[in-house]
Amino acid sequence: MRKLNDNWRLITVAIPFAWLLIFFLAPFFIVAKISLAELAIASPPFTQMIEWADSGIMTIRIVFDNFIYIFEDDLYRNTYLNSLKISVTSTLICLLFGYPIAYAIVRSGPVAKPILLFCIILPFWTSFLLRVYAWMGLLADQGTINNILIAIGVIDEPIRMLYTEFAVYIGIVYTYMPFMILPLYANMEKLDGSLNEAAADLGSRPTNTFFKVTLPLTIPGIVAGCLLVFIPATGEYVIPDLLGGGNVQMIGRVLFNEFSRNSDWPVAAAVAIVLLFLLVLPIMVFQYFQGRSSGQG
Amino acid sequence: MTASNSVSATPWSDTDGQKPLVELRGVTKKFGDVTAVDNIDLDIYAGELFCLLGGSGCGKSTLLRMLAGFESLNSGSIKIDGVDMSDVPAYDRPTNMMFQSYALFPHMSVAKNIAFGLQQDRVPKNDIADRVQDILKLVELQDYGKRKPSQLSGGQRQRVALARALVKQPKLLLLDEPLAALDKKLRKHTQFELANIQEKVGVTFVVVTHDQEEAMTLSSRMAVMDAGRLQQIGTPTEVYEFPESRFVADFIGSANIFEGRVTEDGADHVRVQTDVCDVFIDHGQSVKEGGKIWVALRPEKIHITKSDTPVTGENQVSGVVDDIGYLGETSIYKILLPNDQIIDVTAPNQTRPMNRQHLITWEDKVNISWEPSSAMLLTS
């Protein structure tokens, strides 16, 4: 019996470990290895890390040139900064709109609540790519929005929206809003409604109750929602490519260009590794917050 | 108990000179088609520990929430200390509430939870610290100020909730099932503690409970509620010994109820004919002669003797033991009467049974009787 239990425990621990090993750690090491190689005219197009000479001597070749190149070239630095700026701003916009939406859903009646939640999840039924193309149709110079505005006489000539940073913001905020709302909703739904009543009973006005009780208790939801938006938004490729065109530099596009157009796998890999570390930082902050809040019970 | 001379210790019994602290007039609350609280009139006086007792869904919690300001009234009015509360939001009322779930703020320490209400009133910082310490001492949690609610036991949380509600010295403290979440032993202990604290601080308490024992132990007066209406208001003794209706007689304690007809209605006695026996009551009560009436008998007020000679007459009847419930200190006997009605009789087990054999056992023929003062008349 005990033996059986031990085996089960081993299996339940081993499965997630194996999953992470195969689908996260192994690809990471492959990418890391490529980032330390040099561009070569070969297939795949980079030098091997370990080579065996005919004499049986093993040579290990590690080059940091790719990283030095990325840090010295303004293009990459600016692109990273621009990506962070766009993802941070989009995250804040999502929070600003997502928080009241989540709050309203939690407070809505038993009939409205499932309908509202369904509406939040509804966009996932359509392909992400298709929805971004739809935004192109809406935002284009001859697109739906401009046509309507001209037809009702608000403007005389089309406002340029597509291929601007504005369009990228629209795309990111629109796409990632559910990832902000859903964790906030899950967090708020758990809150004991009598806490608000208790605060009111003790003399606190609604605004004060929000800042002293509701907001502090929804921090875990805010952190989770922000990370779920911030992390994928920073590395976003499709949205800046389709809605921003060449005018909005984001690191996802640069990475793709290095990889496919320049066929410079080592630099592309180095870009990816740097991006990974940029994103690991907020995850660690999140872990810290989670550990603290679970410590509170 | 030390009641000051200027205020009567039982203001509700001498209502002439007293102004009630809480006045409810025609208070009604509807949720859709359901009338949760139905046209209630009630006065509660300063210093009382008033219990609202009733089963689940009887409207007692809704009534409490209306006093706190969490529910609006469909009609009627609530006055607290002479001030009409209809336009006063919860945060401006001179009431505080202790929630059934305690509703302690999980992100704040015990001391901060208690200080929260004082901060809303802009009490100076030093005063807050002093008052928090004082109230923690009152609930015997002086050393727990820095703990988070999650680090406390159920009993400790209950006392923090009480302290938080008391620290603002409200005119009226509302307690929603204050002891329901505690285990039985702790609950019994806390009942007395709660009553002692109420006496010490002198705040008027309104307690909602479904537990009749809790209501009887705690309250100076209680109201029995059913289907949104107050069925009876009185001291625990009044409600238990002089119930006005079958519902109250049966809800508080247990009662054997016989239907009957008033045959004599004297100034100092009442006689009722039932199909069990004639019931004689040695005090007058305003009833209609010839009218339909119910007689209720508390199981503990019936005498039981083992006897093979059947009796008939006033306040006595013969029967057969149908079943016995042995509870240790007392036993419950189910007695089958000649009219096929089974009644409950409880008797203390004052002698230790010899040979582990009880004096009265299954299928025994017994005679039961009661004092002329014991039977209670119910008009509805």
UniProtKB/TrEMBL annotation, chain B:
Xref: Gene3D superfamilies: 2.40.50.100, P-loop containing nucleotide triphosphate hydrolases
Keyword Nucleotide-binding: yes
TM helices/strands, residue ranges: none
GO CC aspect terms: ATP-binding cassette (ABC) transporter complex
InterPro entries assigned: AAA+_ATPase, ABC_SmlMolc_Importer, ABC_transporter-like_ATP-bd, ABC_transporter-like_CS, Mo/tungstate-bd_C_term_dom, P-loop_NTPase, PotA-like, Transp-assoc_OB_typ2
Catalysed conversion reaction: ATP + H2O + polyamine-[polyamine-binding protein]Side 1 = ADP + phosphate + polyamineSide 2 + [polyamine-binding protein]Side 1
Keywords for the protein's UniProt record, in alphabetical order: ATP-binding, Cell inner membrane, Cell membrane, Membrane, Nucleotide-binding, Translocase, Transport
Signal sequence interval, chain numbering: none
PROSITE patterns, alphabetized: ABC_TRANSPORTER_1 (PS00211), ABC_TRANSPORTER_2 (PS50893)
Quaternary structure annotation from Swiss-Prot or TrEMBL: The complex is composed of two ATP-binding proteins (PotA), two transmembrane proteins (PotB and PotC) and a solute-binding protein (PotD).
Chain's gene name: potA
Source species, domain of life: Bacteria
Residue ranges of every copy of the ABC transporter domain listed in the record: 22-252
Protein name, per record: Spermidine/putrescine import ATP-binding protein PotA
UniProt KW Transmembrane helix keyword: no
GO molecular function: ABC-type polyamine transporter activity; ATP binding; ATP hydrolysis activity
Job description of the protein: Part of the ABC transporter complex PotABCD involved in spermidine/putrescine import. Responsible for energy coupling to the transport system.
EC number in record: 7.6.2.11
Family: Belongs to the ABC transporter superfamily. Spermidine/putrescine importer (TC 3.A.1.11.1) family.
